Amino acid sequence: MKNKLKYFFLLAILVVVYASCKRDDDYKYKFSESGFISNFDLRRYYKGSDLSLNPDAIGGATSIRGVVVSDFRSGNSVTGLIALQNSRINGTADSLRGISFNLGTAAANFIPGDSLHIKLDGGVLKRVDGILQITGLTGSAITKVASGRTIKLQAANTSAILANPDRYESTLVAINNAVYDPEPASDVVYSGDKILNDGFGLATLRTSTNATFANAIVQPSGNFTGIVYVTGTGTSKKIEYRMRTVDDFFYVPMPKLSPAIISGFDVDPNVTDGNYEYIQFLATRDIDFAVTPFSVYTSNNAGAASFPTLGWNTGGVRTYKFNLISGTVKKGEFFYVGGAGQRINGSASTVIPASKWIASLDYSVLAGANGIGDKTGNLLANSGNVAGIALFEGTNVTPASTPLDVIFYGGDKGSFYTAGPPEYGLRITITDKFATYAGKVPQEYYGKGTNDVSKRFAGFPTATSFAKLGGVYKATKGGWESVRTMTSVPLTNTSVLSAIETGGVTTLINK
Q: Phi and psi of 136, rounded to 5°?
């Protein structure tokens, strides 16, 4: 029996080794058969030192093909470099990558949308001034096969770019909802280096003094489109970002200051959810709700198979509404909306003071108490599909109303948006997670455009815990100095209010 086990073990090892070798052979054969290699795969061959390009060095590949995204016509491209992006053949969008080619004066012969085939033999893959590029080729290595090809535009925040520079370098990227840091005076022009802050980190917007738009006046906030380069290593990595033309900027005003922001929630209190789930808000100014009322909506997509045709007002088992029409709160104070139990962690736990509650309903027995929603034992989802919370100004909310603040959390499934026609969905606003435009394209719903399922707080808080959303909000102008992150804070029956109102909570900054 022992000998048989040895033979089986040896056979298993041989199968693994053979399969590994076969995958490597298939990998190389794929290139030699077509002759073309993708940027995704070519980047994998670079190991930190100069690589001379020939078929033996890159799995039998001889050429590369892709679409030009850089533009020399406005004078703001890196001297001599064209940026070419492509994806693996039959690959997903995740394989989209860029490579720069140093062609000297010949680079100016190509414009965005040109489809090129480039012979790689004799070139060198190397980093120059931090930019991975291919040098040593001339114009004779390039064949233009088409023009006017569609360019794929990625959207990414600065944190994502710095975390994975290989994915974004030398590609066309939209950085949305960015402001200048510091805020520019009224007569500041593009020329030179400006710092952009999208709430996730910083990027240097670089504009050459001889760019055609160098002397154009900048606007304080908006969506930028440009070529990304990442320089430096480790903690010294920096984003160099170059617009191609003045039309690569689209003015989008930052959101107006929201009087309150969503700062946490409890989806799974001890013993039972019915009547004990709640949402925490942080006031950014003094509020008298009798004078300036608001509405809070929750969206629970558990088991949902149809789209929310009336948006946040769909009601039924999909959305539930609270009207905030009485009570007061001071700037910097937390307040609560949710079940009538008004306790920190279920029926047997510490009572949250009544003065902290602006609206509470026994949603487990009250259907449509404020006009929207069936009675439910699960106001806030704690498993399954994506769920959401939104704050609106006033109580007369329509499907066309834009929320003041909105978050989504949970799983990555659910019927929350359809392009139609007609178009249905849950409206969003500009927040630390969402952008109402991608470049110049409107995307006012969760699930539309770059507001995809990844723009949620992924997953659910652990059972009997509070979801604390840490972040820093600008209490003077609105918008986020640093984005919210979700952290589960374990609660017991004896937990006190400071457990959810101190330490890593959302805070205000007077900017």
A: 85, 0
Classify strands 124-128 and 51-52 as parallel, antiparallel or unpaired. Answer: antiparallel
Least confident piece of the model among 19-28, 55-64, 426-435: 19-28
Domains of the chain: 34-146 (2.40.50), 154-251 (2.40.50), 260-509 (no CATH)
How far, in Å, CA of 324 to CA of 321, rounded?
Answer: 10
Please report, as a single letter, which amino acid is at residue 53.
Answer: L
Provide the strand spans (E) within 87-130.
97-102, 115-119, 124-128
Q: Which amino acid is at 273?
A: D
CA distances from 166 to 78, 108, 170, 291 (A): 18, 25, 9, 52
Q: How far is CA 11 from CA 16, 217, 331, in A?
A: 9, 70, 70
Of the candidates 225, 182, 172, 187, which has an alpha carbon nearest to the alpha carbon of residue 202?
Answer: 182
Rounded Cα–Cα distance for residues 146 and 112 (Å): 11
| Cα–Cα distance measured from residue 7 to residue 150, given in angstroms and rounded to the nearest whole number | 56
| Whether 309 contacts 352, CB under 8 Å | no
User: Where would I find the H helices in 366-489?
Assistant: none
Q: Are 76 and 243 in contact (CB under 8 A)?
A: yes
The DSSP result for 153-170, as a single string, is -EE--HHHHHH-HHHHTT
DSSP three-state, residue 86: strand
* Closest by CA position to 370, among listed 408, 325, 401, 415: 325
- 14-28, 105-119, 214-228, 322-336: the lowest-pLDDT one: 14-28
Amino acid at position 231, single letter? T
Which residues make beta-bridge pairs with 394? none
Q: How far apart are the C-alpha atoms of 186 and 432, rounded to whole Å?
A: 26
pLDDT digits (tens, 9 = 90+) for 76-112: 999 999 999 999 987 666 899 999 999 999 999 999 9
254, 432 Cβ separation under 8 angstroms: no
Q: Give pTM, 2 decimals.
A: 0.68
Quote the Cα angle for 387-392-397, to 5°.
Answer: 100
Amino acid in the structure at residue 142: I
Cα separation, 158 vs 238, whole angstroms: 10
State the burial class of residue 386 (Cβ atoms within 10 Å of its Cβ: 0-12, 13-18, 19+).
buried
